[in-house]
Amino acid sequence: MNVGRLFALTAGILFLALGITSFVPALVDSATAISNSGTDFGLIESYGNLLGLFPVNAPEAILYLVFGGLGVTSAIALDSSLVYAGFTAVVFGLLTILGLIPLANTVFGLFPVFGADVWLHGVVAVIAAYFGFFATPGLRELWQVNEPA
User: Which of 46, 48, 60, 145 has an alpha carbon within 20 to 30 A of 76's alpha carbon?
Assistant: First the structure.
């Protein structure tokens, strides 16, 4: 298994774990109300802090589950794992930028991406960008992928 497929599988498993644990009440602090200051469209009312650190709510947990499922399934082939890594880099890079902007740090009322989520999304975006855009497979890896069984 080459590094691109290994990244997709590892990221997928970690995202699935993050999404599943976001639904475990014992791991999420009590809900914190979001003030409706006119910037979040009032779509979410509250969020909890996963492990007391990462603000999460149900739509964000579902996003993590979707990216986890995509990661695990894209680890089947080299080309799909590279597309997954590039897509993950773009999406989580945008979430990082939105988390830094005070008017958009709830993704326009869908889910919170501020606080420790900015760091988490930034690190994920940088690692995914490396595997999606810069780490190109060598000839040996390509030959092993196309080699008949």
Answer: 60
The single-letter DSSP state of residue 35 is P
Token pair 């005070």 is at which residue?
102
Looking up tokens 């639904």 gives 23
**Residue 138 tokens, joined:** 């060598």
Q: Which helix (DSSP H) or strand (DSSP E) does residue 49 occupy?
A: strand 46-50
Per-residue pLDDT tens over the stretch 84-142: 999 999 999 999 999 998 888 788 778 888 888 899 999 999 999 999 898 876 655 66
For residue 59, the tally of other CB atoms under 10 A from its CB is 15
Two tokens, residue 134: 């810069």
Measured distance CA(63)–CA(143) in Å, rounded: 35
Write the DSSP assignment of 89-105 as a string of letters. HHHHHHHHHHHHSTTTT
Q: Angle at the Cα of 59 (from 54 to 63), degrees rounded to 5?
A: 80
Nearest in space to 57 (alpha carbons), one of 68, 69, 43, 46:
46
Torsion of CA 98, 111, 42, 46, to 10 degrees: -130
Class of residue 60 by CB neighbours under 10 A (exposed 0-12, middle 13-18, buried 19+): buried
